[in-house]
Each structure stands twice: as structure tokens, then as C-alpha cells.
Amino acid sequence: MGVKITVLICCFNGERFLKRSLESLVGQKVKLRDFEVLFIDDGSKDCSHEIAKRFEKRLPLRIYKNDINLGLTESCNKGIQLAKGDWIVRLDADDAFSPEMLGTLLIYIDLKETDFIYSNRKDIFWDKGEEVNVDLQDFNVFRLIASGIAMRRSLLFDIGGYRKFFWEEYDLYIRYLGKSQKLPFHIKKTLYYYSVYKGSMTSDPRKIEQGWDELVNEWGINNLKTYGSDERLNEKFANNHNC
Fold first, then answer.
1. Are residues 116 and 159 in the same domain?
2. Whether 174 contacts 166, CB under 8 Å
């Protein structure tokens, strides 16, 4: 039997949290033959590559290094091409898996009723020293993050992978679910630990606003609202009806 799950890590200058992220994979309670870790170093200038290399004997790990920084979407698409697993789940270099993550996914990936498996998560606010558990039972695309979602590699191929959007995950999820035509499956456990801190990609208000404009221009407000709600999307909806 082949590899069941590919854990995809696309990393650019991620040395601050990377050891923690990879250690969370060492701690998974599953057989090594059931998963692989695919590490794409997107032209990092720090010690990310060296840190990953230290885990080659501890994980079923394959490491690739881009000669130049290609950006997140191209690195993710490279990972989709190289992956051997039937399912792909992203892990950001500054985040971590619960020790139960892969074992729990292995219980559910044979379900024929779904192509999209997600769980609750814990948001860790490093600058504040706070942790918040996020219950995602009521499905809302715009409350999900880019990582921690298990999707079938074959379907990711069918939709052409990621496109260059600021909210590349929302655009991908909408296209993926439209292709799948199956309901998402929610695991009632906290399996993903998400880092929030100053300087992260989603901490720039200007880029966030531009990202929402980009989605609205591509999909339209009414169509986006069929996938969930968000305060910023609601504001754009109200402004559109006030014109």
C-alpha cells in the first residue's frame, strides 16, 4: 500500500518556530509508513534548511529547496506535484499538530461521503501569551485557515491547485468544494495549533483589505456568502447595497 497522507510544509525563513513544528510530527502516534513529510524550502536565507535536515532520520521526510523565492502558492503547487500521499494536509512552519492529528485523520480518510476533513483548532497569540480554542463545528469557509485541512490529492490536481490570491486558501476551498460536491466532515477535536503574532502574513491590515477585494472581484459577494460569513465580507455587502 502507498502513503496515505502527505504533510506539506512550505517554508520561507521559518527558523523561529520550525523545530517546534517538526517535533509535533515526530510525536504523532502513527506508523511511519502511513505518512510522509514533504518540506519545500522556498529560498530561505535563515537556518530553516539546516533545521529541517536534522529531522531526516526521525521522520519520513523529503526536502526540496527552491533556488529562488517562488512564493507560497507556487511552492504549494510544487508540493502537490511531488506528493505521494492520497491525501494532503498542510502544516505551516510556525504552527504545530496535536499528537492525535494524523492518527485521527487516518480513521476518517476512507470515508466515501467526504473529500474535505477539518477539525477544531487552538489559536496561540504569542505576543499576548494567550490561547483560544476555536470550535468550527458550524462550517464556515472564512473561519478556516490555510493549513490543517485534509484534501484529496487527486481533486487538488483536478482544480489546478492554488492560484495567486492573498487568501489563496479561500479561493482554493471554494473551487475544491465546488468540484467535490460533497459535504465537509468535521472532527470534534482540537488537532491544529495556529500561531498568531506580529509580522505574520495575516497581520497587515492593508493586505487583508486588498485580499477581500480580490475575492469579491473574482467570486462576487453573493456567491462568497453561500460559503460562510465574515465581518469584512458583511461590511462589503452592506456598502454594496448602500450605493
1. yes
2. no
| pLDDT tens string 98-109 | 999 999 999 999
Distance from C-alpha of 171 to C-alpha of 88, rounded to nearest angstrom = 17
Whether residues 101 and 12 fall in one domain: yes
Question: Phi and psi of 166, rounded to 5°?
Answer: -60, -50
Q: Is residue 124 domain-shared with residue 208, that is, in the same domain?
A: no
| Count of structural domains within the chain | 2
Residues 183 and 138: their CA atoms lie apart, in Å, by: 12
Provide the residue range defining the domain that includes 113: 5-203
Whether 243 has a pLDDT exceeding 60, the answer reads no
Give the C-alpha separation, 49 to 4, whole Å.
25
Please write the tens of the pLDDT for every residue from 143-170.
999 999 999 999 999 999 999 999 999 9
Count of C-beta atoms within a 10 Å radius of residue 80: 18
Does 179 lie in the same domain as 220? no
pTM of the model: 0.94
Cα–Cα distance for residue pair 228/214, rounded to 1 Å = 17
Q: Under a CB-based contact definition with an 8 Å cutoff, are residues 109 and 5 in contact?
A: yes
Residue 140: all three cell numbers together: 464556515
90: pLDDT strictly greater than 50: yes
